[in-house]
Amino acid sequence: xxxxxxxxxxxxxxxxxxxxxxxxxxxxxxxxxxxxxxxxxxxxxxxxxxxxxxxxxxxxxxxxxxxxxxxxxxxxxxxxxxxxxxxxxxxxxxxxxxxxxxxxxxxxxxxxxxxxxxxxxxxxxxxxxxxxxxxxxxxxxxxxxxxxxxxxxxxxxxxxxxxxxxxxxxxxxxxxxxxxxxxxxxxxxxxxxxxxxxxxxxxxxxxxxxxxxxxxxxxxxxxxxxxxxxxxxxxxxxxxxxxxxxxxxxxxxxxxxxxxxxxxxxxxxxxxxxxxxxxxxxxxxxxxxxxxxxxxxxxxxxxxxxxx
Length: 308
Hints:
Elements: H1 10-41, H2 48-72, E1 77-82, E2 93-98, H3 104-113, E3 120-122, E4 124-125, H4 134-140, E5 145-146, H5 151-156, H6 159-175, E6 180-184, H7 193-199, H8 212-221, E7 227-234, H9 242-246, E8 252-260, H10 275-307
Parallel strand pairs: 1-8, 2-6, 2-7, 3-6, 4-5
Antiparallel strand pairs: 7-8
Helix pairs in contact: 1-2, 6-8
């Protein structure tokens, strides 16, 4: 039965929606101001203690979200698989790739990672800095914020390409003072059948990967990370919307984590200016994506067989 078929009585949905919205909003207003206030002190002096305190406050906010999931969504079944050679801990430094289907993906990552990995950051657009509270929190918590320029702008002023890279380098290097998980959605957007057809993607379950962001992160951080982690998320009953998730209309979520071996030749390459290296790197990512596509098919088949 798909989540679309698991509709609840309207009064129950309204009650649950109001409960979730009230608790998350209240938690955000409780945790947000201390993060912003402490963040302002960093304008005067950088402080590892302030960074650690803000991370603890953020983890407290995430813990309430996870508590809501456990309390209000008791019928949600998690199937989490971690490869034996992947040793995760709260003091690690990880790069993570993941397929992207729904806004729920980030919640899944937070639910899984809160007690297993350091706080997850991801590349964000610089323009988000102007969103009240959210944008400032991203900046304070060390999310790499990118001023991405269009191809037309770079063609007009080639120096902008290197400015973008330098901004990314500075943002990533700031993470090295603490444990971190840096997430990259290689597809660059959420999967949909329409996008899949438009791209003529060679993969059954995935859009084409964009290798540039991963190449940049590995170039900056590659020899200082503990592992490149690939997370695969499968919704056996279909990718849900964010509201569907919080209203309890998702019954199963499957998560697989595997460690990706990084070839020695990857380190130190110049993805932007070395065409041979870029082609080799793209081929390597295509191979990883082919393996991931096969894994998703196998995970889906497992649930289809169980339902038969």
